[in-house]
Amino acid sequence: MNSFYIYVLKSIKGENLTYVGYTNNIKKRLKLHNEGKGAKFTRGRKWKVIYKEKFMSRKKAMAREYFIKKNRKARNFIKNKFS
């Protein structure tokens, strides 16, 4: 059974941007983001993982990703505590 992860990326240079996503392979996904092959929002920037959580189902990971994306307070807490 695969594990799924939600992750929070922070831009390395310039703006203080974050991106939230989910995957079953964080290293591969980060590589894609940094090569400009990830989500459109992440293209043209370099990223580092500042936070991750592990889930046993895709459904739970997607629900948590949605929560963090939509909840500015949670996202800012993660950004301030882990970056």
Report on this structure.
- With 83 residues, the protein is α+β, with helices and mostly antiparallel strands.
- It has one domain: GIY-YIG endonuclease.
- Helices cover 40% and strands 28% of the residues.
- It has three helices and three strands, in the order ββαβαα.
- The protein has a three-stranded antiparallel sheet, sandwiched between helices.
- It starts with a strand and ends with a helix.
- The mean pLDDT is 94.
Question: What is this entry, summarized?
Answer:
The protein is of the alpha+beta class and 83 residues long. The protein has helices at 26-34, 58-70, 72-82, and strands spanning 4-11, 18-23, 47-55. It has a single domain (4-82), classed as GIY-YIG endonuclease (3-Layer(aba) Sandwich).
Based on secondary structure, the structural category is alpha+beta
| Residues in helix, % | 25-40%
Distance N to C terminus: 31 Å
| Number of beta strands | 3
- Give the biggest sheet: 3 strands, antiparallel
The quaternary state of the protein chains shown equals single chain
The count of domains is 1
Count helical runs.
Answer: 3
**CATH architecture descriptor:** 3-Layer(aba) Sandwich
Provide the β-strand percentage band. Answer: 25-35%
Q: Which fold name fills CATH's third level, the topology? A: GIY-YIG endonuclease
